[in-house]
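Input/output pair, single chain:
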Amino acid sequence: MDRMVLRDDQWARMAPLLPGKVGDPGRSAADNRLFLEAVLWIVRVGAPWRDLPEYFGHWNSVFQRFRRWVRSSVFDQIFEALSQDADFESVIVDGTIVRVHQHGTGASGGTQNQAIGRSRGGLTTKIVALVDALGNLVRFVLLPGQRHDSVGVAPLLTELDFAALLADKAFDSDGFRTELADRGAMAVIPPKANRAIRIPYDVEMYKWRHLVENFFCKLKEFRRIATRYDKTDESFKAMIHLVGSVLATR
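Output:
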């Protein structure tokens, strides 16, 4: 159980960011830490909500509270507050695919509205993430699995100031290179093999692209993210934001 719960120093950074503190409107929450650790247990283990250990409270009460926090963007706000000291000497972008479990379908409006698509692996969701020069998550977007990674780049870069962007050759396009040049950022992107004229890039700097792969490996240690069980994209996003917050405080 120890590896599923928060250390005291992690909790000290998160506690002031949560609703229900003394002084907040409404009833004060005496069990914010227990609730957050309950959600973290679900994300880490990948278990159904009904299998939540009784120690954390009744599973449905915890689930309903989780949904309230999701609708109020609490997990998004926690992550945003804990990731404000990003190192923008460079940023790295890449995408990864997660398979969608059969229990992750059935949301109102259909899977097409929940960032779920069909690719060679069946029903999948794509996480396109931007990490900083230290490999820490800055932002991410969810796409249906069959969409190209480059579709999600624009919202990741909005209002960010960075010196260089590292990406693999899937992001090699004239339009994207022009956009980076207009921003005054260096494109560290190897050219595709079918380019008539080879475009040089900083090979030594490109070696640091492994940091985004390392991030995805850490993210997928949490089994409810390695496989998607959540019907709604907002719940899946909340779980990624929670894991991002935990990783940011390690």
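The two ends are 17 Å apart (CA to CA). The longest strand covers residues 122-132.
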